[in-house]
Specification:
The modification 4-aspartylphosphate is found at residue 49. GO terms for molecular function: phosphorelay response regulator activity; transcription cis-regulatory region binding. Keywords: DNA-binding, Phosphoprotein, Transcription, Transcription regulation. Pfam families: Response_reg, Trans_reg_C. Residues 2-113 form the Response regulatory domain. This protein is 39% helix and 22% strand. By secondary structure, it is an alpha/beta fold. It has two domains: 2-116, Rossmann fold (3-Layer(aba) Sandwich); 126-217, Arc Repressor Mutant, subunit A (Orthogonal Bundle), CATH 1.10.10.10. A five-stranded parallel sheet has the order 2-1-3-4-5, with helices on both faces. Helix 2 (33-39) runs parallel beside helix 3 and helix 6 crosses helix 7. The longest helix has 15 residues, at 102-116. It is elongated, with a radius of gyration of 18 Å. The chain starts with a strand and ends with a strand.
């Protein structure tokens, strides 16, 4: 697998490149955000540091997400919850804080790849909720006729709920089907993506929370 490592620390980049190569990956290194942005479209996976000398890594992440669904894991020293939430909201598939064990990084990369091989089945029909139309096969959402750009994972969560409107989906069920890991129930990832769906559609009722139970597709 061709992995883009966007990291300006030469020592860390060297150690990670060696570890990734040992695991059979081909590593492309970028020390600047502009270079990372240019290369992101030609690789299979991106490991992204946020503290880059020429731009904030979150800006690079958002700009990459506008044109590519390449798997991205943020690898950074920023450990505060607000930084983790901003990274996930900007489109990261996972977020790991330095220092970390190489084995953990490899496991997280494998988990992200497994999620990509378990796409949620979408039947050829459109589900409507109020003025929201969810085209399951075309992977398209419109609100009052206007298209809404959701991230891949936000759409997967919405599809899971829309496949059986009115049915409550438990947190662990959603995490297992969309993330491929029910143990992520202790994380804020699902909450972040649900908040993203509500915010981007402008319809807070679209995903209904049932405290202690899970979520279901809401109705206006």
């Amino acid at each position: 697998m061709r992995v883009l490592l966007v990291e300006d620390d030469d020592r860390l980049a060297g150690a990670l490149s060696t570890a990734l190569t040992r695991h059979g990956h081909r590593v492309v290194r970028a020390g600047l955000g502009a270079e990372g942005l240019r290369l992101a479209g030609s690789v299979d996976f991106v490991l992204l540091d946020l503290g880059l000398p020429d731009m904030d890594g979150l800006d690079l992440l958002r700009r990459t997400r506008r044109v590519s669904s390449v798997p991205i894991i943020v690898v950074t020293a920023r450990a505060e919850e607000r930084d983790v939430l901003r990274g996930l909201r900007s489109g990261a598939d996972d977020y790991i804080v330095k220092p970390f064990r190489t084995a953990e990084l490899m496991a997280r990369m494998e988990a992200v790849l497994r999620r990509g091989t378990r796409p949620i089945a979408a039947h050829d029909h459109v589900v409507t909720a109020g003025d929201v139309c969810i085209d399951l096969s075309a992977r398209r959402v419109t609100v009052a006729g206007e298209p809404v750009a959701l991230t891949r994972r936000e759409f997967d969560v919405l599809v899971l709920l829309a496949r059986r409107p009115g049915v409550v989906r438990g947190r662990e069920e959603i995490l297992d089907e969309v993330w491929g890991d029910p143990l992520l129930s202790a994380s804020r990832s699902l909450d972040v993506h649900v908040a993203g769906i509500r915010s981007k559609t402008g319809r807070p009722w679209l995903v209904e929370t049932l405290r202690g139970t899970g979520y279901r597709l809401g109705s206006a």
